[in-house]
Amino acid sequence: MDATARIRAARWTDKDKVAALIGDALHPDPLAAWLVPETTHRRRILTEVAAIWVEHAMFYGDIHVTDDLSAATVGFHRYRPIPPPANYHSRLLDAAGLHADGFDQLDTLLSESRPTEPHYQLAFLAVHPDARGAGRATAMLTHHRNRLDRIDLPSWTDTTTEAHILYARHGYTPRTPIALPDGPTLQPMRRNPERRGAVPINAARGHGSCPATERPVPRGSSPGGFECPSRGGPLPPSLSPPQPQADLNPEAGDRVA
User: Fold this and answer.
1) Measured CA distances, 194 to 3, 77, 80, 151, 199 (Å)
2) pTM
3) pLDDT in tens, 152-177
4) Helix or strand or coil: residue 254?
5) CA atoms within 13 A of residue 126's CA, in its CB half-sphere
6) Distance CA 242, CA 257 (A)
7) Which residues contact 55 (CB under 8 A, 6 or more apart)?
8) Are 45 and 103 in contact (CB under 8 A)?
9) Mapping DSSP to helix (H, G, I), strand (E, B) and coil, where does residue 173 land?
10) Mean pLDDT lowest among 34-43, 166-175, 222-231
């Protein structure tokens, strides 16, 4: 496999393939065995639960893939609170059945450790088993890092303790581990941006993103432009709220995050 494969924003029509990729990548992991102990239905359950979050990221985050769909990143723009996926609990129960409680418990533990300041949550970094060892994960993390450095946004992810070395090479530092009951230990990790030439967006500095009590509003006649009512300054395009678009319809074709 070519480690220099082109990385692009995912399209709406890619979402099922991205969910299947996550299922394939996660299937042999100890976390997957904790979530779904029996192997018979594990891949299907992982894929169907991942599909819920992949669809959600199309509206409240972004997804990037290699052209051959052998690797993907799925993340969320948490510059302000975002809602859970639509009808999440009923959809989770449909997807996971008797295993839904484990996914719920995992969601709770991960959300409790997540920072409250504006940040990017890297929810999934998935590489197909057949593509491992070809530099795909390194390429995806480098692409991810360069994007976030341009907008001065910290990144947060949760990984296994075995995989954290890869993230450490890309500037992530470990936080307090999360020990799952009778299961593996997860390693939350944070990366602060390199601020050379960045566009500041940290609300703690008093500019760039809206205060928690404000909602971004459309800015004048500029298509897709948003600003904070109390500040009047534009938000960076990558942090503007998601807008209803025709291409978010499954029949409408592509959706570039």
Assistant:
1) 25, 18, 22, 10, 11
2) 0.75
3) 889 999 998 778 889 999 999 999 99
4) coil
5) 28
6) 9
7) 15, 85
8) no
9) strand
10) 222-231
